[in-house]
Design goal:
By secondary structure, the protein is mainly alpha-helical. Helices cover 41% and strands 9% of the residues.
């Protein structure tokens, strides 16, 4: 079960995107100049300060306070731009809505190049056209899920990027769909579970969505790009872990960590084990 941010997608130049959206809503250069002449420079740290404050005041996207995720993100957008705009310049609601829309769809994200080929290989695995390296006629059945510290935008974003994503989530009112036509069979969100990785509870919640869970030979593999949250978090929950290290960040640092450089290599690695 992969972690969405660890990683199938990445943000498309978030700071540049914010500035472009701001300029589009407020007629271009006039508003960009207002930002640059404001209280302080707009940079990556500006949004982080607003995010950290909102997360501290209203954890888990404000769910416990009755706030939905869109309202939570709207607070961050208001705080981010209020910190850099002159006091006489208000944050337009059209900007807030435009940014929430952008980062709830494919407009704000890109797929890594290995994602589609990975799902194509997995589809061959699942439909029986792929054979194991050691001559076994078929590979084990698999349930593919996303386990992520995020809110309910995840399924919508992945679907908009062309990933066939089941609506099945860790919640009581979720409809269970057939897994035969999906790239991703289930999505486990920290928003739904109330715990974030590396907490064991989110991994246990993901296991409960696996239709093969009751079988004694069921096994669980987690792949992600965070050494602490993904790799060691899953290990402590009793899962097998593989670290996705696309940029070779951990070369020579973590010699005993099971790593792959891309998702296609992961599938190939697994087929060689059967």
């Amino acid at each position: 079960m992969p972690n969405r941010h660890g990683r199938m997608v990445y943000q498309a130049s978030p700071i540049r995107t914010l500035m472009q959206a701001f300029g589009k809503v407020r007629k271009g250069e006039r508003c960009r100049n207002a930002v640059h002449s404001g209280k302080r420079k707009f940079d990556a740290n500006t949004g982080k300060i607003a995010f950290d404050h909102e997360r501290s005041e209203r954890p888990n996207y404000g769910k416990a306070t009755g706030m939905n995720a869109s309202q939570w993100w709207a607070n961050i957008i208001h705080s981010t731009f209020s910190a850099v705009l002159p006091q006489s310049t208000s944050v337009p609601e059209t900007l807030v809505a435009a940014l929430i829309h952008r980062f709830s769809s494919k407009e704000g994200y890109r797929l890594y190049d290995d994602v589609i080929p990975c799902f194509q290989l997995l589809e061959s695995w699942r439909n029986g056209t792929m054979t194991a390296s050691h001559g076994q006629p078929t590979l084990p059945r698999v349930h593919i899920g996303v386990v992520t510290n995020s809110d309910a935008r995840v399924s919508v974003i992945l679907t908009s990027l062309g990933i066939r994503t089941n609506s099945r989530r860790y919640s009581s009112n979720t409809t269970v769909n057939s897994t035969s036509t999906f790239d991703i069979d289930s999505v486990t969100l920290s928003y739904d579970v109330g715990f974030e990785k590396p907490n064991k509870n989110i991994f246990d919640a993901a296991k409960s969505l696996n239709p093969f869970n009751a079988q004694s030979d069921s096994s669980y593999l987690h792949v992600g790009n965070s050494l602490g949250n993904d790799y060691y978090g899953a290990q402590k929950a009793g899962w097998r872990s593989v670290l996705l290290d696309r940029d070779s960040r951990y070369d020579g640092i973590e010699p005993n960590v099971d790593r792959v450089g891309d998702l296609v290599s992961l599938v190939q690695k697994l087929t060689q084990e059967y």
